[in-house]
Amino acid sequence: MGLFDFFKPGNKNNSNNQPAKKLIAPDANGDFALKNSDFFIKTHSAKVISTTVSADFYELFPEAAKPVKKGGKVEVRFSIVDVLFWGKQVEVTFNTDEISGDLDGFINKVNSLLNWLIKNKKLVDEVIIRDLLPLKNDNWLDEGETVLNAEELLNALSLTSIGFDEETNIDLHYDDGDLFGGHTVVVLISAKRKVKEASIEG
User: What are the strands, taking DSSP E only, across 35-143?
Assistant: First the structure.
């Protein structure tokens, strides 16, 4: 039951995309004070090639938007800024269209969470070790590959992006360093600052 849209990727480098701005580092206290003007908008678009809706969908969800017609275009906009985080260049992003109301207030919450997160890498590392070290050693060792220890696991991973949803829940995306066949490592953190789990996706 639900909405199934099949998209054909569009041109991601359209005129709405702006060049990336300079890398923003934390201040002397290790904190960020990002502003709306620090972000640039990146638009992803796709052409709808087929749309199907189950018969009872709009009875259950009358407020849902009608599906885009075949041949139409769907766009999703993201606000993005590159920051220096844990010694690496990392992309901070959120879906611009999901944020209603006070955008400056939302970005202030993002700053608060970033400033907590940058000082609490150990909490994230502990969950990565808890969830992924057994997974790697039990299921993802190549033939002839030796068992990894916690330090080797953490050193292989590289944080690439920090995403926020409209409730300021966080997902951290890591390059897996080929430990898991090129899958992305994702760590989920609640808006209440609880590091929940680490998994592989993609």
Answer: 40-53, 73-85, 88-95
Domain ranges for the chain:
3-117, 121-201
pLDDT in tens, 34-53: 999 999 999 877 776 766 66
pLDDT at 115 over 70: yes
159-175 pLDDT tens trace: 999 999 999 999 999 99
**Residue from 175, 201, 167, 169 nearest 188 by CA:** 169
Residues 6+ apart with CB under 8 A from 135: 180, 200
Residue 126 phi/psi, 5° resolution? -65, -40
Determine the 3-state secondary structure of 189 from DSSP: strand
Residue 108 gets the label, from left (phi > 0), alpha (psi -120 to 50) or beta, of alpha
| Structure-token pair, residue 169 | 């829940």
Q: Which two tokens stand for residue 190?
A: 């609640």
Beta bridge partners of 5: 51
* Spatial contact of 154 and 169, defined as CB atoms under 8 Å apart: no
The CA distance from 47 to 7, in Å, is: 5
pLDDT band at 4 (very low <50, low <70, confident <90, very high): very low
